[in-house]
Amino acid sequence: MVSLWSSKQNGDGVDGQADERTGEEAPPPRSSGDYRSPEADERTRLLPAQPRPPPNDGYLDPDDPAVSPYNLWSVRFLRWLTVLFFLVTFVWWVLLLVSIFVSPPGMHSRGSGFFDFSYTTLTLGNLFVALLFYTNPSRAMRISSAIIATLLLIDVILISAVTKVRFEEGWVGLASVIWATIMAIWCLFVDRIVAWGKREEEERLTGRPETRRTLAEWIGVFLATVILIIYIVIVILMTGTLILRARDASLPMAGERYFVDGDKYQVHLACVGNVTESHGKREPTVLLEAGEYPSEYDFEHWAYNSYRNGSISRYCYWDRPGYAWSDNAPSPHSAGMSSDALSEALARAGEEGPWIAVGAGVGTITSRIFAARHPHDVVGIMLIDPYHEDLLHRLSSPGRGFVLWGWGVLSPLGIERLGGAMFKGRTRQDRVYGRNAYQSGKFIKAQLQENLVADSLSKNEVVSARAIQSQSVPVVVVSSGIKVKTDSEWEKKQEDLSKLTKNLVAWDSVKKAPHQVWKTYDGRQTMEKDLKLLVAAAAKVKTG
Q: How confident is the model at residue 51 (pLDDT cuts 50, 70, 90)?
C-alpha cells in the first residue's frame, strides 16, 4: 500500500495499472516531450479568448454628451450674439412690415418698401438656419454663406451706384441690404468658429477629432444646405431685378419730376403744347388723370392725337404716386392726397389754369376731388367710365388687398420681369409704364395703398368733393358699353354721375368698348367728339 501511494504521488505509475478508487485502467503518463493538443469536445472553445481591455486612458467616448463645442466660452458667446442679432433683425422686420401700411416718421422710402422687407426676411432666415444647426457646422454651409454674402455685396454696390435706385430705396433700403450682407458674413464666421471649437473639444476629450457623423447630423447638414441653396437662388433673382431697375432708371422721360408733400417724394409731370389765348381769354389746358395704368400707356396717346387734330390746344399729364416715373408716397395715401400732390406739382412747375379735368376709371375719383378743390380754375370735367363712390368697396376688398400684398412681397424676385426681359423681348418702356408696369413693386404698392383706403378715406373725400362741387361746371361722361350691359349697378351709377352738376354736355355709352374705352376706334372717336363739345362749353364758363 505504501509503495502504491508513493508511486502515485511521484507520478511513476505503471502503464496499464488500475486506479484503486475506480478500478479502471489509468491512462499512460505523458512524457515531458509530448506536446500534442487534447482532442476537441463539446466544451472546447471555438474562438480564441479575447484579450482583456486595456486600462482606462482617461478619454471620453466621442458620442458622450460632454463632448460639445459649448464647453468653450467663445462658442457660447457667439451664439448669444447671434440670438441678439436675430432679435434686432426681427424688430426691424416688424417695423418694415408695418411701414408698408402705415409709414413711421422718418422711415418712408420713395420706393415700394418691398425690397427692404425682402432683404430683412432673408436675413432672418439666414440667422435662423445658423441657430438651428449651430453645433453641426459643415463646409457646404460655409460655402453657401460665402456665396450669399458675395451676392448681397453686389446688391449694395448696385443700390449705391445707381442714383435713382439709391433715392428710391433711401437709407432704409440701403441699411437693410448692408445689414443682410454683414449678417451673411457673420453666419460664415460663426460656422467656422464652431467647427474649430468642435474639433478642439474632440481632441481634448477623446484624443482625436471626430470625422464621423450620425444620421441626425447628416440630415441636419442636408437640410441646412438645401435651405441655403434656396437662399442663393432668391438673392440671384433679387440681384437680377436690381440690374433691371438700374437699366430702367436710364429711360428718358418727357417733363420733369417735382418734390411734393414736404419734399418727401417726387411726382412726374409733363405738358404738351403752348399756352394760347382766344378772344382775350386763356384757352383751357386738359389735365389728364389715368385710371388703373400710367397715363403714358396709350391714354396719353389719345390726348396727343386730339392735340394733333386741333381738338385741344394743350394738355398736361402726370403719374400718380407709385406709377411710372413717380415715387411712392408714404402710407396711408388717399385720392385726396394725390389731388394735393398734383396741385403742388403744378404750382412748382409754374402751371396755371384754367383746366379741363379728364379722368379715367379709378382716376376719376382724384379728378373730381381736384375739380371741387379748385372751383375757380376747373372749367370742365370729363369722366371716362368713372368709378362711383358707392362702388369703391370693389377696390377695397380684404381678399384683393391680401393678394396685392403677396405679389408685393414676391416682386423683388422679379420672376415675371426677368422672364419677360430674357425670353419675350420686353423693353424698358414696357416695364416702366407699359404692359408690364403692373409687375413693378412701386405699382403694386400704389395699388395696395388705393385698396387700403378706397372705401374709407378716399370715399369720404370724394363725397365731400361732390357736396362742394360747383354746379355750373360742364360735365361729359363716356361709359363702357360692355360694363353697362353686363353690370346693372354700374349702369345706374354712371347715370348718377351724369348728374354730378347741372350742366351735362353729353353722356355716351360706347358699344363693344371695354373699361378702357380708348382701346377701341369707336371709343376714341366718341371721346374726341365729346371733348370738343366740352371745350366749347368750357369757353362760356367764367373763371377767376
A: low
Q: What is the Cα–Cα distance from 246 to 249, expressed in whole angstroms?
A: 5
Q: Say whether pLDDT at 98 is over 50.
A: yes
pTM: 0.83
Report residue 518 as a C-alpha cell: 380708348
Cα–Cα distance, 524 to 302 (Å, whole number): 7
Which grid cell is 336? 385726396
Helices 163-206 and 215-248 meet at what angle, rounded to 10?
A: 160
Higher-pLDDT residue of 509 and 69 is 509
CA–CA dist 374, 288 (Å, integer): 15
pLDDT of residue 200: 81
Listed in sequence order, the residues at least 6 apart from 324 whose beta carbon sits closer than 8 Å to its beta carbon are: 268, 294, 295, 296, 432, 433, 437
CA separation for the pair 93, 84 (Å, rounded): 14
Query: 435: which DSSP letter?
Result: T
* Cα–Cα distance for residue pair 134/53, rounded to 1 Å: 36
pLDDT at 11: 44
Place of cell 377701341: 520
SS3 508: strand
The dihedral built from the CA positions of residue 398, 401, 407 and 408, taken in this order, carries a sign that is: negative
- Per the document, the length of the chain is 544
- pLDDT score at 331: 93
Average pLDDT over residues 499-503: 95
Do 25 and 18 contact (CB within 8 A), yes or no?
Answer: yes
pLDDT at 36: 55
For residue range 326-364, what is the model confidence (pLDDT) as tens digits? 999 999 999 999 999 999 999 999 999 899 999 999 999
What pLDDT, on the 0 to 100 scale, is given for residue 61? 66
Residue 3's identity, in one-letter code, is S
User: Grid coordinates standing for 442?
Assistant: 412701386
**Closest residue by Cα to residue 294 from 151, 443, 408:** 443
Q: State the DSSP H helix or E strand holding residue 493, giving kind and residue range, or none if neither.
A: helix 488-497
Q: Which of 419, 384, 410 is nearest to 290 (CA)?
A: 384
Which tops the pLDDT comparison, 381 or 10? 381
Architecture of domain 257-394+438-538: 3-Layer(aba) Sandwich (3.40)
Residues 6+ apart with CB under 8 A from 378: 353, 354, 355, 356, 357, 370, 371, 473
Per domain, the residue ranges of the chain are 69-248, 257-394+438-538
